[in-house]
Amino acid sequence: MSETQPSIGETLAATVPMVRTLNLEFLEASPERAVLRLPDQADFHNHVGGPHAGAMFTLAESASGAIVLAAFGDQLGRAVPLAVRAEIGYKKLAKGPVTATATLGRTAAEVVAELDAGERPEFPVNIAITREDGAVTGEMSIVWTLRPQS
Questions:
Q1: Angle at the Cα of 148 (from 105 to 116), degrees rounded to 5?
Q2: What b/e string do you get for 38-60 counting C-beta neighbours within 10 Å, with b at 16 or more?
Q3: Which InterPro entries does the annotation name (predicted)?
Q4: Mean pLDDT taken over the chain
Q5: Cα 95 from Cα 83, distance rounded (Å)
Q6: What 3-state class would DSSP assign to 48?
Q7: Alpha-carbon gap, residue 29 to 5, rounded angstroms
Q8: SS3 110
Q9: What are phi and psi of 30, to 5 degrees?
Q10: What's the rounded Cα separation, in Å, for the pair 64 and 9?
Q11: What is the CATH number of domain 8-148?
C-alpha cells in the first residue's frame, strides 16, 4: 500500500469493530495468503483457559476477509464482498496465542471472470488455526460472494 492508502489491516481495524476488540494482529495480507494472530488475552479465554471458540471464529473470519480484500480490492467499485456461509471444526485444545492462515479455494482470475460475465461468483476461503507449536487447533471454510453493485 502507498503512504496515502491504508493497509488491509488498518482498513479492517477501522471498519470492523471486532478486529479492534480482539486486538487482532495482521502479519500478512496478500492475494495468495492472509495471516492474522490472536494474542493470548485472559478476557477472551474459555472455561479451560484457551481462546474462546467465538474469538477463534472471529480470528479465522477476519483472516478470510483480509485475503478477500487483498485479492478483490480492485473490484470494490462494482461488487460488494459478502460471506455466504461458514463451517468451523475445532480439532485440538488451543492455548496461548493462535494464528489463522487463509487461502483462496479458487483463483482470483476465475472469480473475476464470472463477475465479468455478469454472474455473482461464489468462492471458498480455507483457514487453518494453529498454536505456536504449529499444531492445527481448528479449520474453517467460508464461502464468499462478490455481489454486483446495482
A1: 70
A2: bebeeebeeeeebbbeebbbbbb
A3: DUF4442 (IPR027961), HotDog_dom_sf (IPR029069)
A4: 94
A5: 28
A6: coil
A7: 14
A8: helix
A9: -135, 170
A10: 12
A11: 3.10.129.10
Pairwise CA distance, residues 131 & 63, whole Å:
15
CA-closest candidate to residue 62, choices 42, 94, 45, 37: 37
Cβ atoms of 144 and 123 closer than 8 Å: yes
Lookup result for grid cell 483462496:
104
DSSP 9-45: HHHHHHH-HHHHHTT-EEEEE-SS-EEEEE---GGGB
What tens digit of pLDDT does each residue of 69-90 get? 999 999 999 999 999 999 999 9
Radius of gyration of the chain (CA): 16
**Please, what is the Cα angle at 89 between 83 and 91, to 5 degrees?**
145
Does the reported pTM lie above 0.90?
yes
Cβ 143 vs Cβ 85: under 8 Å: yes
- pLDDT per residue over 35-77, tens digit each? 999 999 999 999 999 999 999 999 999 999 999 999 999 999 9
Residue with cell 472471529: 58
